């Protein structure tokens, strides 16, 4: 019997396919990114997993400015 909690994974891990919601969920979790960044990486580099990984590494998400505590700038 199949474990219902087990995460579904693609048969071909060399290509990032995001046609179905489970694929989007798999790849965003696997690559630790957002759907927007994943889509942009595929658009700019193609669906090959290594090229998508490279784009994500070379284009990190913008950092949020840190807030100062009690008016002290850090």
What does this structure look like?
- This protein has 74 residues and is mainly alpha-helical.
- The chain has a domain at 21-58.
- The protein has three helices and no strands.
- It has helices spanning 21-30, 35-45, 49-58.
- It is flat.
- The mean pLDDT is 89.
Low-confidence stretches: none
Number of discrete helical segments: 3
Q: What can be said about the biggest beta sheet?
A: none
Average of the residue pLDDT scores: 89
Structure classification:
mainly alpha
Cα distance spanning the termini? 55 Å
Q: Topology as H/E string?
A: HHH
| Helix percentage range | 40-55%
Count the E strands: 0
Shape: flat
Instruction: Report the C-alpha radius of gyration, rounded.
Output: 17 Å
β-strand amount: under 5%
Give a short summary of the structure:
The protein has a domain at 21-58.
Keywords for this structure?
42% helix; mainly alpha; 74 residues
Question: In terms of topology, how is this protein built?
Answer:
Layout: H1 21-30, H2 35-45, H3 49-58
